[in-house]
């Protein structure tokens, strides 16, 4: 005799009350009156009859309904769909938010791994689904964001199904888990972007749900196996829990049936699903050796750039740094708590609310139940993979952690019986709090283009394609798609000779992602100083909307003879706002983008030891230069040079302070630009200085707020 949820198997006299989960033997006292029915169906149909315990303690007859009156099982998933699908479709991203998103958009038109369209392993199932929606949506961005929105709603439904499967007597587990996943900023924003994260998780969860339903049914096991094979072609990074569950259930069926039939049901559909995407992919890339070469190159990149081994720190320090980065990213992009910044009242309240929801839920999750253990193993596998192998500054890569974590928390609250309103109130309140966190971020995603798209639009509006060469690093895909008429240079395939030919006699060189260009590349682009900055702008968006490319610095170079010295006359008031949006044209080499530093808007210097400022000063006057600075490495020394002449040497403190330098009249040449060089003694990276506690790997020398020049005296 087998119950629908698989818990009651065998002779009823062996069941006892365990943690209020199972009914005692007395509840089965009336089983004898149904023996004839079980015996009849066993011989007629060749299978045991399903039964369920009734609310009164007896056994429900086969014809009696097992559902509670007035609570149809389809109502919770229907309500979840009514909440999530309109929400996701209303806030789809207005732009392509990531380098990978542009690669996927290009792959819809032309799939080519040699051109990284998309990056290996190719995500062929994702590209296939995007192509299906392309005619309906009208464009690559619309098609891919529509796919993500539909997938986000599917995630909520399947999380509900997994909750019901793990805890069939408590629908609150599924409903609460689905709401926590669907309304968390991490889950919500993933369902709005043109990326494979939400579709990949949806197919992974569907495979897990089908496999779990197939633990007593070979047909469902085969269907889950088929979906698992397809899932490897959508987002293979999510496949480890699915493969382990498939192998475990197949072994379980083999042990119980003592035949090879379960092996066929477990393996053959999986191979069929995998071959469905692998065969056309191999045809597209030129065969298995070429595909394996792509996979090997991509794996080497992940190992060298993203994994635990890429930190370059001793193992204890690397583990500590990764743990801090992991926790910071997870908390910041779920509840808005930033471990690396100072906590105000808002952060403190959010942190306390998080603890009051998560801790009781995990404590009461029923850790002696094997379903809870499986959820914990699933969570540990997902977290371990991200911690060891993935880059930790991309919250979308942590998306697979949300379903098992949310189900554990919801399961614990669902087991709290007194007072009855407490558990629903806690889970609904937590979901509403997450919703309030996500609304402003989703609204910005749906209305403000990604910074690379903003910068590309600015270039298109101000610089003609026939007169402009665009050089880019992380924004290269955006330039490739948004600026198809422009000549492009890519930093990571940078050829100095080809770059010199491309920029010869060109009026404008637009350098996107200026902070990522090393001094050697800038020397080539500027033709060793013949090209000078015309303007310097930074485009941005809240980094919680999308962490990658949240700031893009654009510096436009032009030949020095096209820019009269008077164009660099001091602003009104005589002060160059180093961190301001309008004064970037005065800054030449050695500067990073504007940012907030110690509560002050400024810029770090440090891409080289020397940071240069270009000014036009009237000759024949003695000037006084005042600057406000903050050293990064302790004991920083800076030499101030005016047109190559050293006029002062300063010792900078590690706090904001003002310094004054006198500029002799003899160092200012008439009719020429005056070069102010700040030559620092040393530079250091925050990552190395903090032992990995900071993820900032930029070499820094000092930060500057403003530089003011005033006439001290006249001859």
Write the layout of secondary structure elements.
Layout: H1 35-45, H2 75-90, H3 99-109, H4 124-137, H5 140-166, H6 171-183, H7 185-190, H8 197-213, H9 218-231, H10 239-257, H11 261-285, H12 288-305, H13 315-332, H14 345-363, H15 370-389, H16 402-414, H17 422-447, H18 451-462, E1 468-472, H19 476-482, E2 487-490, H20 496-503, E3 508-512, H21 519-525, E4 531-540, E5 551-559, E6 575-577, E7 591-597, E8 600-605, E9 610-616, E10 622-631, E11 637-642, E12 645-651, E13 657-663, E14 673-680, H22 686-689, E15 702-713
Parallel strand pairs: 1-2, 1-3
Antiparallel strand pairs: 3-5, 4-5, 6-15, 7-8, 8-15, 9-14, 10-13, 10-15, 11-12, 11-14
Mean pLDDT: 87
Could you say how many structural domains there are in total? 4
As residue ranges, the low-confidence spans are: 4-9, 11-70
- What fraction of the residues are assigned to beta strands by DSSP? 5-15%
Class of secondary structure makeup: alpha+beta
Fraction of residues in helices? 40-55%
The span between the termini is 108 Å
Large-scale geometry = elongated
Largest sheet: 6 strands, antiparallel
Description of the structure:
The chain is an alpha+beta fold and 715 residues long. It has 4 domains: 1-66, no CATH class; 75-195 and 294-447, no CATH class; 451-563, D-Maltodextrin-Binding Protein, domain 2 (3-Layer(aba) Sandwich), CATH 3.40.190; 565-715, Jelly Rolls. It has helices spanning 35-45, 75-90, 99-109, 124-137, 140-166, 171-183, 185-190, 197-213, 218-231, 239-257, 261-285, 288-305, 315-332, 345-363, 370-389, 402-414, 422-447, 451-462, 476-482, 496-503, 519-525, 686-689, and strands at residues 468-472, 487-490, 508-512, 531-540, 551-559, 575-577, 591-597, 600-605, 610-616, 622-631, 637-642, 645-651, 657-663, 673-680, 702-713. Strands 6, 7, 8, 10, 13 and 15 form a 6-stranded antiparallel beta sheet that branches. Strands 2-1-3-5-4 form a 5-stranded mixed beta sheet, sandwiched between helices. The protein is elongated. The model is unreliable at 4-9 and 11-70 (pLDDT under 50).
């Amino acid at each position: 005799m087998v119950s629908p949820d698989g818990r009651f198997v065998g002779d009823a006299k062996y069941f006892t009350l365990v943690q209020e989960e199972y009914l005692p033997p007395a509840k089965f006292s009336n089983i004898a009156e149904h023996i004839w029915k079980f015996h009849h169906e066993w011989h007629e149909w060749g299978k045991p009859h399903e039964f369920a315990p009734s609310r009164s303690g007896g056994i429900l007859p086969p014809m009696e309904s097992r559902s509670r009156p007035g609570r149809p099982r389809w109502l919770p998933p229907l309500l979840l769909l009514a909440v999530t699908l309109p929400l996701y479709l209303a806030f789809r991203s207005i732009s392509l938010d990531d380098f990978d998103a542009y690669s996927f958009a290009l792959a819809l038109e032309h799939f080519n791994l040699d051109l990284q369209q998309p990056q290996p392993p190719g995500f062929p199932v994702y590209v296939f689904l995007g192509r299906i929606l392309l005619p309906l949506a009208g464009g690559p961005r619309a098609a891919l964001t529509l796919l993500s929105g539909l997938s986000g709603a599917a995630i909520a439904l399947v999380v509900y199904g997994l909750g019901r499967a793990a805890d069939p007597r408590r629908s609150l587990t599924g409903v609460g888990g689905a709401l926590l996943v669907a309304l968390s900023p991490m889950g919500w924003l993933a369902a709005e972007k043109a990326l494979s994260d939400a579709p990949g998780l949806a197919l992974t969860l569907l495979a897990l749900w089908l496999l779990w339903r197939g633990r007593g049914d070979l047909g469902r096991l085969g269907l889950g196996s088929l979906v698992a094979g397809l899932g490897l072609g959508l987002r293979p990074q999510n496949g480890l829990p699915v493969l382990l569950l498939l192998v475990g259930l197949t072994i379980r069926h083999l042990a119980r049936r003592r035949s090879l039939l379960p092996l066929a049901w477990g393996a053959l559909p999986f191979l069929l699903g995998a071959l469905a995407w692998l065969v056309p992919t191999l045809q597209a890339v030129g065969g298995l050796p070429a595909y394996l070469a792509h996979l090997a190159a991509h794996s080497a990149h992940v190992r060298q750039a993203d994994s635990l081994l890429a930190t370059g720190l001793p193992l204890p320090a690397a583990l500590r740094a990764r743990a801090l980065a992991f926790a910071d990213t997870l908390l910041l992009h779920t509840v808005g708590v930033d471990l690396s910044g100072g906590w105000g009242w808002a952060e403190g309240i959010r942190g306390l609310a998080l603890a009051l929801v998560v801790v009781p839920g995990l404590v009461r999750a029923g850790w002696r139940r094997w379903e809870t253990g499986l959820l914990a193993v699933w969570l540990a596998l997902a977290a371990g993979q991200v911690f060891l192998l993935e880059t930790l500054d991309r919250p979308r890569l942590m998306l697979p952690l949300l379903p098992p974590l949310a189900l554990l928390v919801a399961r614990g609250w669902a087991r709290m019986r007194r007072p009855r309103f407490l558990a629903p109130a806690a889970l609904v309140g937590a979901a509403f709090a997450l919703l309030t966190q996500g609304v402003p971020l989703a609204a910005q995603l749906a209305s403000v283009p990604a910074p690379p798209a903003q910068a590309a639009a600015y270039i298109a509006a101000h610089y003609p394609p026939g007169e402009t060469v665009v050089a880019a690093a992380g924004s290269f895909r955006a330039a490739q798609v948004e600026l198809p008429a422009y000549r492009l240079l890519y930093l990571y395939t940078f050829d100095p000779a080809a770059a010199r030919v491309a920029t010869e006699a060109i009026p404008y060189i637009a350098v996107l992602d200026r902070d990522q260009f090393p001094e050697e590349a800038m020397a080539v682009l500027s033709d060793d100083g013949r090209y000078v900055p015309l303007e310097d702008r930074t485009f941005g968006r809240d980094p919680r909307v999308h962490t990658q490319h949240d700031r893009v610095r654009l510096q436009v170079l032009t030949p020095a003879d096209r820019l009269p010295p008077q164009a660099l006359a001091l602003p009104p008031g005589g002060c160059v706002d180093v961190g301001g949006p309008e004064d970037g044209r005065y800054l030449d080499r050695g500067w990073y983008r504007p940012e907030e530093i110690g509560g002050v808007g400024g810029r770090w210097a440090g891409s080289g030891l020397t940071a240069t400022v270009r000014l036009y000063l009237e000759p024949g006057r003695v000037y006084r230069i005042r600057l406000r600075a903050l050293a990064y490495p302790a004991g920083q020394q800076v030499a101030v040079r005016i047109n190559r002449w050293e006029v002062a040497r300063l010792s900078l403190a590690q706090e904001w302070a003002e310094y004054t330098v006198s500029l002799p009249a003899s160092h200012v040449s008439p009719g020429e630009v005056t070069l102010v060089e700040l030559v620092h003694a040393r530079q250091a990276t925050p990552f190395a200085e903090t032992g990995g506690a900071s993820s900032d790997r930029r070499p820094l020398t000092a930060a500057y707020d403003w530089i003011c020049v005033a006439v001290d005296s006249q001859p």
